Amino acid sequence: KIFLCWFLFVFVDKCRLRACKLTCIKLHSSKILASNIKLASGRMVAGTGPSIGGAVVVFAGISGALLGGALARKRGFTTTPPKARVDGKYVPFGNVPGEKRGDDPMTPTKVIYDPYFWLRDDDRKNPAVLEHLHAENRYCASKTGHLKPVAEDLYKEILSHIKETDEGVPYPYGDYMYYHKTIKGLSYRVYCRKKTGSDKEEILLDMNQVSKGKSYCDLGTLSMSPDHRVMGYTLDETGGETYKAFFKDVSSGKMLEEDMPPNTGSLVWGQDNKTIFYAVHDEAHRPYKLFRHKMGTSASNDQLLFTEDNDEYWMGFGKSLSGRYLLVSSGTSESSEVMFLDLDAHGNDDVVDLVMVHPREKKLLYDIDHYGDYFYIVTNADGAKNQKLMRTKIANPSKKHWEDVVAYDEQYTISDVTCFKRHIVVEGRHGGFTVVWYLKPESGKLQQITGFPDTVSSVGVGTNKIFDTDTVRVVYESMVTPLTTYDINLKTLDKKKIHQKDVPNYDPSLYECKRLVAVGHDGVEIPMSIVYRKDIARKPGPLYLHGYGSYGICCDPGFSASLVPLLDRGVTYVDAHIRGGGEMGRTWYEDHGKYLTKKNTFEDFVSCAKYLIKENYTTPEMFGITGRSAGGLLMGATLNMAPQLFKCCVAGVPFVDVLNTMSDPSIPLTCGEWTEWGNPNNAKYHDYIASYCPYTNVTRQDYPNMLVLAGLNDPRVAYWEPAKWVARLRELKTDDNEILLKTDMDSGHFSASDRYFYLREKSFEYAFVLDQIVRKTK
């Protein structure tokens, strides 16, 4: 799970107000790498929140600003759209002296004029830039004031479907049951545990106390020492995704003073309860150095275990579920390598060295877990594009010793393997949906775990912290069925339902989800997942279409409490499973949705939209679309191609300046994403990227009404991308429709950390959409 975990996500029992429905697949805490999850996946659709023991759980978000913003309220409103001055720069592409522009940069360089370059301020302190963003917030507030009653109604309705005082599903870890809870009126989670068999609750961390006085506070990880006496946790207080580590003696409640630098947010304990492994970023916010720290000592004495010098590679680390091995990976989306440290044998040595499984090779991806004398390997070796399962003796781990466990079948995608002491569980995909299999180690045969209610659904392995067990925890959900947790007996494969997320005032029998299929511009079938209220939805009627389509990330069917008020107003919600995602396997992404085939992503989305209109699900006057981050790129490209199909668009933290951003290695994520988009400094990719980049291709035509959301401290999609895009749209568009920009001046890529603020943001977003495609909202 060390490297390929980029593409896997877990749903948790939160007030999951999602912009997209991520794959219902776990990232169990023993192996997970928070730095990889949050950073290596680039311009993702998700934000994160941790569970105890180092597990990172991923939840979705879309909005990037609070309604109006505090400054907008203080300074008053304006009905005139801000006009950004033209103060540009000729941006060079190719071989620039003194800069690492990747392999084979163009000579001579090309230059393209960027008229709004001045809006870029890496320090986020330029008074003129900040005033422009405040002016945009004031204008947005002035043009949406009439939405406040509707937004308030939506907020109350969303709350009515959320059990505000609630408790997560406890899971066993050591001698304790760990869980989190929420309390009505409080904005953050409280992390707790109980001794197994006891009702006495210990509060480990109350994020409501930790976050006091802070406008933003995100918990990166919460990790218990092996003896469960010391808790380590990390906090990001700006939204910039740089974390500070804290340590607490749980028995005494005393905070422990530790000298540790700002880090990537992940902490992994050694076996002696005194050793901590952590990683740091480089100047481009890339995780690149791994350290070993001894509690009570100076950080200057920390041992450097690994440095990734290649700017295109990202480093991550974690621990096998067995607890024996520290696993360290480095890679891109196309190549990876894994190293390990035997913590039992060498974890306390004065100087430790990592052992390489197999050094990086071009186009070779692999990930490992520990089972007995073997490492089990998920890999694309030997041309297995949709990946297969192999294994190797730990004593001889190099690739020449790898052997197939399950024969490769291109109809099935192998995504992950979880190894318990006596059992192996495999996750993957078939026919566009997620699958969980039990692998019989002695026979090498996969047996699917079945019997879940809905066909259009998601299933994946949940939080499992016990290595020596005959039970695996699995989570399931659909667009109409809330998150449901099962324990599976691995001897019999019998299922025991142990919990279903409580959704008040919700009757699942009123709603229906199903799969639709559109035909793409080149004849390829494009699946969609659709949900609506059976007794209200009409044809044609208002429809809200979501898309993402990048990094091989899967937007699988999942339940959203925040979506219910839209469905109850007759809105149909649709997810388009377009190329560039991984819903139909890795080839859906690698062969058909990246590099020089990236335009398939946008063409597929347009094809889905045309299908929904043709089949009378909606009309252009009742059609809203949304996408976030790389999904915002999808929005921008789609609106340049076919703006006439849509009434409105919500673009959250949109990655709309692909050409300029991907040419500049000083911008976070750039070098590591040359294997996703291509490098525009290279002639092979420059013209192709330039032909679809949303900002570059804004043209003189009509555009629909748009709400664009940004975060000032966003390290993934810098605020200036949506700001420049809005300025360019206003300059060139030929209609009277509104283009609104809201920038959250206190957060980053993942929106507000306060759950109630987040609900306010969702309510505002939905009010905007309803105002466009429904009008009558009660």
Automatic annotation (TrEMBL):
Indicate yes or no for the key word Glycoprotein: no
EC nos? 3.4.21.-
> Which GO biological process categories is it annotated with?
proteolysis
Q: Which residues form the Peptidase S9A N-terminal domain?
A: 105-498
Presence of keyword Hydrolase = yes
Q: Which Pfam families match?
A: Peptidase_S9 (PF00326), Peptidase_S9_N (PF02897)
Q: Please state every residue range assigned to the domain named Peptidase S9 prolyl oligopeptidase catalytic.
A: 558-772
Transmembrane residue ranges: none
Q: What class of enzyme is it?
A: hydrolase
Q: Which UniProt keywords apply?
A: Hydrolase, Protease, Serine protease
Query: What would be an example GO MF term here?
Result: serine-type endopeptidase activity
Q: What does this protein do?
A: Serine peptidase whose precise substrate specificity remains unclear. Does not cleave peptides after a arginine or lysine residue. Regulates trans-Golgi network morphology and sorting by regulating the membrane binding of the AP-1 complex. May play a role in the regulation of synaptic vesicle exocytosis.
Record's family?
Belongs to the peptidase S9A family.
Protein name in UniProt? Prolyl endopeptidase
Could you read off the lineage of the organism from its UniProt record? Answer: Eukaryota, Sar, Stramenopiles, Bigyra, Labyrinthulomycetes
